[in-house]
């Protein structure tokens, strides 16, 4: 239903007739959360959990709205969100929210490594292929990985990737042949991961000699040394945390810049792009 106000009325009517109707409760929780009616949304997620204590998405969003500490997003939650979002993902992000991160990543990479043409590129969390549209001309082959089958279906139709894989990205990296990618890209993905220690170690293991890791995060303004779950359901990462975990994993920063990632309720979300390479072995 395109008219969200009308949809909300319908869900409330259904709930009045059937108070335990989970789909209506969940959809109404989403709509109230989207309008920043935090207390109402949290109460709806709590109601869902009373009916279904194992409802993973409701538990995660209740935690986000309650200021609880979490270290990661549940895989099933991420898959559900992006499977539902896939049909209007690009229209919503680019036309409505001012999203142009793939272009910013490409320009940043070209600025700092103008002569580097990686043979094989790995797009972690490739979604519908927006990064592939920018980077596919730079390399001989591109591999895309995403947890959402619906997003991968959209990417498949663009014919940009030599192979596409439905997998959680850490699981993929665990099974990936080593030392094969000249560039690994992760655009607007880390905010859905939470803790980044394992990711940075795993990416290092699949990088070819002379390879690089290009990624973005949503910024946290304070010097916190852990991921912070925001009310949006995404994680923010401070610059101090990113420097800490990348340094511990064996990465060296080439460059970093801050930028506006996209709009949320008419305000810009602040983020950062990082370009890294393995730290030289002494």
Percent in strands: 15-25%
Overall mean confidence score, pLDDT = 92
Q: Shape, please?
A: globular
CATH homologous superfamily (4th level) name of the largest domain: Vaccinia Virus protein VP39
Tally of structural domains:
2
Detail the poorly predicted runs: none
CATH topology of the largest domain: Rossmann fold
Order of helices and strands: HHHHHHHEHEHEHEHEEEHEE
- Please give the number of β-strands: 9
The secondary-structure class comes to: alpha/beta
- Span of the ends, CA to CA: 60 Å
Summarize the structure.
This protein is α/β, with parallel strands linked by helices and 282 residues long.
Describe this protein's structure.
The protein is of the alpha/beta class and 282 residues long. It has two domains: 4-68, Tetratricopeptide repeat domain (Serine Threonine Protein Phosphatase 5, Tetratricopeptide repeat, Alpha Horseshoe), CATH 1.25.40.10; 92-278, Vaccinia Virus protein VP39 (Rossmann fold, 3-Layer(aba) Sandwich), CATH 3.40.50. It has twelve helices and nine strands. The chain has helices at residues 4-17, 22-34, 38-51, 56-66, 75-85, 89-96, 101-112, 130-135, 149-156, 169-175, 197-205, 239-249, and strands at residues 120-124, 141-146, 163-166, 181-186, 207-218, 228-229, 235-236, 251-264, 267-278. The protein has a seven-stranded mixed sheet, with helices on both faces. Strand 6 and strand 7 (235-236) form a beta hairpin. The longest helix is centred in the N-terminal third of the chain and has 14 residues, at 4-17. It is globular. The mean pLDDT is 92.
